[in-house]
Amino acid sequence: MDEFALIAELLAPLAKGEPGAFNLTDDAALIDLSEGHRLVVTKDMLVAGVHFMADDAADLVARKLLRVNLSDLAAMGATPKAYLVGLAVPKGTSDDWIRGFAGGLAEDQAAFSITLIGGDTVSTDGPLTVSLTAMGEVPAAMALRRAGAKPGDGVFVSGSIGDGALGLAALKSGLDDDNAVYLIDRYHLPRPRLELAVPLRAIAHAAIDVSDGLIADLGHICDVSGVGAEIEAALVPLSLAAKATVAIDPTLMDTVLTGGDDYELLFTADKTDIGRIVALATDLALPLTMIGRVIAGAGVMALDHTGATMTFESTGWRHR
Amino acid sequence: MDEFALIAELLAPLAKGEPGAFNLTDDAALIDLSEGHRLVVTKDMLVAGVHFMADDAADLVARKLLRVNLSDLAAMGATPKAYLVGLAVPKGTSDDWIRGFAGGLAEDQAAFSITLIGGDTVSTDGPLTVSLTAMGEVPAAMALRRAGAKPGDGVFVSGSIGDGALGLAALKSGLDDDNAVYLIDRYHLPRPRLELAVPLRAIAHAAIDVSDGLIADLGHICDVSGVGAEIEAALVPLSLAAKATVAIDPTLMDTVLTGGDDYELLFTADKTDIGRIVALATDLALPLTMIGRVIAGAGVMALDHTGATMTFESTGWRHR
Fold first, then answer.
1. 0.90 exceeded by the pTM?
2. Residue B313 has what pLDDT?
3. pLDDT class for A1, splitting at 50, 70, 90?
4. Where are the domains of chain B?
């Protein structure tokens, strides 16, 4: 069996739950939206050698691909519905890799209640390239946006920041202590915060997922909302593993704040809603931490524990 | 300016018509469906060196990418709404290439009433790889499907068959006479038959677009519908250029019937509807030709002008 036949055989069962996928045998797929809802759609590509290593476990590649897209849906306040996957496969890709990739999709689509409905597999002379389009839905007028932050808002972030970027650094350094293992897992397997999508619709003024880096992504909110923001580095929530790592090398705080690959949600909300936000964090057993405030003006300022403005080597959007 | 900034600058205007695209600055895009409609979604990838030549004109690559996806929408009876584009761009891609690509999208999205709403640009160490997700809508229960062909149906095809595959052959042979120019244009710029999408909803029992090859795609209809089909090669409509080319080398009739890249619509319909189909062809100034019939059984049989069964080197689905 060639790799195309194997891919077709392994992906078909992933489409079983959705009649509109036609077992992946038609020209296109059909989706119904719930009444009064809008479709939310996002697309991300990952390239071997750029976004993942060619020898990374295939199931982790598949799960990360799905999760980074789900994180975008969460940032818009959407609940997941369906996805399409595009694969450009080099000749000689092993059956094991293909099985691992399909297995990773199967595991995570079950975990996140989303179903494969279509896609395309082609051959390439270059590196393995994977592309995913994820679709969700949100009630009309309830979508979360980057626009909408207001001076006086608190700036909040879910979970912990910096684990993904520190995990990548640990991977490159060949570290394998307990902290490195934790951080590398977070790099390979981001946790898209879909549990926040629905409750934040009623709370957040603006939202984004932290993929480019905390400072850069807060900058995106500020740019689109026409405001500035000020955060205190000491308030940024770090995992125990990240704290331990930064304690050994304090310069890594830069990596935490600008490294990206967090896939946490960053949002602004009225400070009077802080009680609701605390209650939500408790309900979900997911930290939601206020790290700063929205101000009039433009740009993001980060203050260190002395109140001095921090400078970074790069806070801009890193094109990858 | 790096290529990512240039791509962002050139693609943003393409999203202007659609408020849900947020000028391509948000995590995902929003789309509304018309009431009572379902979303139709399809995704195709093209790789330089596999699906197009690295030195092909960038605008033609963009337009073909969009058109092959639009052809899938047409085959489902859908009207186009929006698309996302994914680009994996090698370092050193010229500004001219990027400008050409964006210009091609601009030209065809205007021609086919579809708007860019999102996507992703990444770097690659491999060949340029482009991926497009196209979305359309169709009234609930009106979608055209590969399933539904019934014994006794006529088998119909739009336009002319074989131009794309003969065009590719001409390109490879370095031909540049008038016929070759016509055929090569058809290879580079398929005509997605969107004008058939709406009228065929009420006429076709089953439909597909001819991308893998006439015989193979009719085989797909037969497989999913649980029927067989018989076509007469002499009835298959050829352009004047294709006729002239096949007259010189009659073995090229194989290429016509199995070569693919036609992006015409192949459909089956009740023979009593032939009057409506003729009227539709006249209305649209687009040939709709009956080339055979659906029969009980399985598989596709092609008959030559003597009534003998034709055999082909390859009629199967060519994975590319």
1. yes
2. 77
3. low
4. 3-139, 154-303
Rg, chain A, Cα only: 20
The single-letter code of the amino acid at A96 is D
pLDDT (0 to 100) of residue B320: 45
Contacts of A167 (CB under 8 A, 6+ apart): A180, A182, A183, A184, A185, A186, A187, A188, A261
CA dist A253 → A154, A235, A239, A313, B74 (Å) = 22, 12, 13, 12, 53
pLDDT, tens only, A216-241 = 999 999 999 999 999 999 999 999 99
Residue with tokens 């740009």: A299
State both tokens at A307.
């109140």
Alpha-carbon distances, residue B313 vs B161, B162, B209 (angstroms): 18, 16, 22
pLDDT band for position B315 (cuts 50, 70, 90): low
Tokens at B238, concatenated: 């050829």
Asked if A3-139 and A154-303 have one fold, the answer is no
Sheet order of strands, A37-47 included: A115-124, A79-90, A129-139, A37-47, B29-31
Question: pLDDT band at B161, cuts 50/70/90?
Answer: very high
User: How confident is the prediction for chain A on average, in pLDDT?
Assistant: 94
Kindly list the residues from chain A whose CB atom is less than 8 angstroms away from the CB atom of residue B72: 27-28
- Contact between residue B224 and residue B176 where contact means Cβ atoms under 8 Å apart: no
CA distances from B89 to A254, B9, B23 (A): 29, 16, 21
pLDDT tens digits, residue range A73-85?
999 999 999 999 9
Which residue in B28, B32, B319 is closest to A2 by CB distance?
B319
Q: Which run of H or of E encompasses B192? A: none
Q: What percentage of chain A carries pLDDT values higher than 90? A: 91
Asked if A74 and A196 touch (Cβ cutoff 8 Å), the reply is yes
Judging by beta carbons within 10 Å of its beta carbon (0-12, 13-18, 19+), is residue B264 exposed, middle or buried? buried
- Cα(B150)–Cα(B166) distance, rounded to whole angstroms? 32
| Helix axes B58-75 and B178-188, enclosed angle (nearest 10) | 70
Burial label for B236, CB within 10 Å (0-12, 13-18, 19+), is buried
Q: How high does pLDDT run on average in chain B?
A: 94
Q: What is the mean pLDDT of residues A184-212?
A: 97
Query: Which residue in chain A has the smallest CA separation from B32?
Result: A38
CATH of A154-303, one of 3.90.650.10, 3.20.20.70, 3.30.450.20, 3.90.76.10: 3.90.650.10
Backbone phi, psi, residue A315, to 5°? -120, 5
On the CB side of B240, CA atoms within 13 Å amount to: 4
Residue A50 burial by CB count (10 A; 0-12/13-18/19+): exposed, middle or buried? middle
Interchain pair A125, B50: CB under 8 A = yes
Fold annotation for B3-139: 60s Ribosomal Protein L30; Chain: A; (3.30.1330)
CB distance A257 to A214 below 8 Å: yes
Tally DSSP H helices, then E strands, for chain B.
10, 11
Question: Which of A45, A70, A123 to mutate to probe the B interface, most B CBs <10 Å?
Answer: A45
Residue A174 predicted with pLDDT over 90 = yes
Closest residue to B31, CB basis, from A38, A82, A121: A38
User: What is the per-residue pLDDT for A230?
Assistant: 98
